[in-house]
What does this fold into?
Amino acid sequence: MTDAGGVQDRGVGGSGGEDERTALIIVDVQPDFLPGGALGVAEGDQILPGIRRLMTSGRFPIQVATQDWHPPDHGSFASRHPGRNPLDVIELHGEPQVLWPDHCVQGTPGAELAPGLPWERVSAVIRKGTDPRVDSYSGFRNNIGPSGERPPTGLGGWLREQNVAHVVICGLARDFCVRWTAEDAVGAGFHVTLRWDLTRSVDPAGDEALREHLEDQNIWIAGHQAS
Ligand code: VGL
Ligand code: ZN
It folds into this structure.
C-alpha cells in the first residue's frame, strides 16, 4: 500500500456512500512558505506535484485549504519585538511563541494560495492568524490568546455538517501548522491521516520525535519510508 491516504476512499462515487466521508485539508501552501519565500521551508516545492495529484484524483469531493493571513503588525513577527530576531522564543499569553520573519501579510503575493495548484477544487478556505494579538497555527482553532482560550475557526463544524469522519492532511509546515491542524482534528473527533511525504518541516531535525508524538495521538502517518 503506497498511498494510505486513499485506503478509506473506495466508496467515493459508488453506491454505498459509507466511505464518502473523507476530506482533504491542504495547509498553508503559499509562496511565503516555499523556497525563496519569507519563511521558506526547505524542499517545500517538492510536495506540490503530489498535492496536485491528490486534489485531482477524484477521491476527495470535499477539499478545504487553510491560508495564513496576517495583518502587517502581527504579534508573531520578530519585527514587532525590538531586539528580537526570527526564531527567538518569547512568552505570549503564558505560552511559548516562536517569532517569525514577516510572512503571509494580507494581500501580498507571498500570502496567496500558491500558483499552479487546482484551487478551484477547494470549496472553503480558512484564513487564520488575522488577530494581531494571537498566532493561529491550526486550521481548527487559534493558539491560546489573551482570554486564555483557543476560539474555534468553524472548520470542525463545516466538516461535520458534511458528515466527514476522516481527514487527510498535507501542506506546510509539517512541524507547525500541519502538526497543530492534525492534533486539533483528532481533538475534534476526526480520524486523521497525515501524508508525511506531502509535508516538510521548518526544522527537520525534530522529525523523528514529531512522528512518534503524532502516532501516539492516533494520527495515521502515511507515505513515510523508514530509512
Ligand atoms: C506557519 C509559522 C508561522 C505554518 C505559519 O504554516 O506552519 N509557521 N506561521
Ligand atoms: Zn504565520
